[in-house]
């Protein structure tokens, strides 16, 4: 299917004054949490011939092993998916010797997508604009846009808003 997006206005202050621009933002049409572990396990099992239970077991254990590696100061790289890393910080001190282990903490755990994954998503992902007439006042839209959206809706050109869990 692809991703449906909305158009949102953002205001910026410039030397010339306030400027408004419009940007695409994601419209969430999925249940909270997106594709769950159970759905992912079903999809993987269906496509690979492995049992759903085995896949669920691996998916359930994976966070533990990633956490273990990160606790050991290692990053975790999964080919085709990406890498998990931690970032650390501490309070600022006037002398380097004052930066002791007890003052250091994790500031965040972050994920960097594999370049191949990013490239494939960029190349193959399709985007669909949610009809502007559904959330912008008609006075803001040109007659041409309103007519084009009505025509597209009648012809079924807008993607269905159903959520499917098929593998």
Automatic annotation (TrEMBL):
<keyword id="KW-0238">DNA-binding</keyword>
<dbReference type="InterPro" id="IPR041607">
    <property type="entry name" value="HU-HIG"/>
</dbReference>
<protein>
    <recommendedName>
        <fullName>HU domain-containing protein</fullName>
    </recommendedName>
</protein>
<feature type="domain" description="HU">
    <location>
        <begin position="1"/>
        <end position="127"/>
    </location>
</feature>
<dbReference type="InterPro" id="IPR005902">
    <property type="entry name" value="HU_DNA-bd_put"/>
</dbReference>
<dbReference type="InterPro" id="IPR010992">
    <property type="entry name" value="IHF-like_DNA-bd_dom_sf"/>
</dbReference>
<dbReference type="Pfam" id="PF18291">
    <property type="entry name" value="HU-HIG"/>
</dbReference>
<dbReference type="GO" id="GO:0003677">
    <property type="term" value="F:DNA binding"/>
</dbReference>
């Amino acid at each position: 299917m692809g991703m449906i997006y909305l158009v949102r206005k953002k205001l910026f202050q410039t030397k010339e004054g306030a400027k408004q621009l419009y940007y695409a933002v994601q419209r969430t049409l999925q249940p909270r949490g997106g594709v769950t572990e159970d759905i992912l396990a079903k999809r993987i099992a269906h496509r690979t011939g492995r049992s759903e239970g085995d896949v669920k077991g691996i998916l359930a254990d994976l966070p533990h092993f990633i956490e273990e590696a990160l606790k050991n100061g290692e990053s975790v790289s999964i080919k085709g998916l990406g890498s998990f890393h931690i970032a650390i910080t501490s309070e600022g001190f006037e002398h380097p010797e004052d930066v002791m282990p007890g003052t250091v903490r994790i500031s965040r755990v972050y994920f960097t997508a594999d370049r191949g994954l990013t490239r494939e998503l960029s190349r193959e992902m399709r985007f669909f604009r949610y009809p502007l007439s559904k959330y912008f006042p008609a006075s803001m839209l040109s007659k041409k846009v309103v007519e084009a959206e009505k025509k597209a809706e009648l012809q079924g050109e807008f993607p269905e808003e159903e959520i499917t869990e098929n593998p």
